[in-house]
Amino acid sequence: MSRFLGKAAAALAPYTPGEQPRDKSYIKLNTNESPYPPAPGVAQAVVGFDAEELRLYPDPEVTALRHAMAQCHGLAPEQVFVGGGSDEVLGYIFMAFFDKGDKVYFPDITYGFYQVYAQLCGLEAVRLPLREDYSLDPADYRGLDGHIVVANPNAPTGMALTVAQVEELLRANPGRLVVVDEAYVDFSDGRSAVPLIQRYDNLLVVQTYSKSRALAGMRIGSGLGQKPLVAALERIKYSFNPYNLDRLSIAVGIAAAEDDSYLCQTVERITATRERTACALEELGFQVLPSEANFLFARHPALGGFALYERLKAAGILVRQFSQRRIKDFVRISIGTPEEMEQLLTTLRRIL
Ligand SMILES: *Cc1c(COP(=O)(O)O)cnc(C)c1O
């Protein structure tokens, strides 16, 4: 490591992204990307994009995309913050609302980035254990002395709180900000907390176009909440990266936002494949957690998580595996096309 590295940066344990191998072509079921292309309007927006426009800075207020997103959610444009992927939005949230030394609460098993940001911002991260069955007990989050971040549906379990349970968190912590990361909510059965925004000034919802809208390669995310929360995120953005969304991302984002019927269609295909795959895995002896996301979290009594991961990789199929003690026997399998899942099942039958 460089001898110029600062102490804080040296102490960091950076997030490890899923593998994006280039050595051969794999069936890629490891990073929850969509198996389907983005909405047809996206290709048109890219082809029709005038490169000469890149001479000019993009709109720092991201007005047109904010309007399009606001329309999707029935919100005012001032209730929408747009970021370069939801990871950036989460980063801005940590910078805007959490002070050094503050406590931030999240489950022991959840998206790894929360821990990294907490460390980066000098916060005290408190990890509340999920129940034995990996569900979150809202009672554990009553009257906390710190901020709260939950992914709903959770990653990597795929399990989700109901809207009523999210509301319980909000009511039990009126003086605290509750951040709900809804990266996978489009694959769930009506679990979005967005309808609660008008009634709770302590709710900030984070969403992304990377998963259900098939735009992981473009980096578009949002923060949805009452106006003062969005204004606070704007303060950080204008102190950090005022032009955080480039012109092409804005054009592509608008095209994706405007095609709700394509979104519904692909989400339906993916959730149908998820349900069929879950049944087939159970028939093979897997325990599969109930998923409201575009992936399944499953374990087999005969083979540990790492062994499964390695055998599948050798067979040309990538899944994600985690080393954390409570979940080391699981693999996380993104939902691909029906053909890809059929290949996965055939391979598993052979391995087992
Ligand atoms: C994938 C994911 C994100 C990040 O999404 P980007 O918008 O691509 O940055 C955020 N939170 C969770 C829980 C995720 O799984």
Summarize the structure in words.
The protein is of the alpha/beta class and 352 residues long. It folds into 2 domains: 7-37 and 261-351, Aspartate Aminotransferase, domain 1, CATH 3.90.1150.10; 40-259, Type I PLP-dependent aspartate aminotransferase-like (Major domain) (Aspartate Aminotransferase, domain 2, 3-Layer(aba) Sandwich), CATH 3.40.640. It has 11 helices and 13 strands. The chain has helices spanning 7-11, 40-47, 63-73, 86-97, 113-120, 163-172, 227-237, 247-257, 260-283, 305-314, 338-351; strands spanning 27-28, 80-83, 103-107, 124-128, 147-151, 178-181, 203-208, 221-225, 287-288, 295-299, 317-318, 320-321, 330-334. The strands form 3 sheets. A 7-stranded mixed β-sheet has the order 2-8-7-6-5-3-4, with helices on both faces. It has a 4-stranded antiparallel β-sheet with strand order 9-10-13-12. Strands 1-11 form a two-stranded parallel sheet. Strand 5 (147-151), helix 6 and strand 6 form a beta-alpha-beta unit. Helix 4 packs parallel to helix 5, helix 4 crosses helix 7 (227-237) and helix 9 (260-283) runs parallel beside helix 11. The structure holds pyridoxal-5'-phosphate. Residues 85-87, 111, 151, 155, 181, 183, 208, 210, 216, 221 line the site of pyridoxal-5'-phosphate.
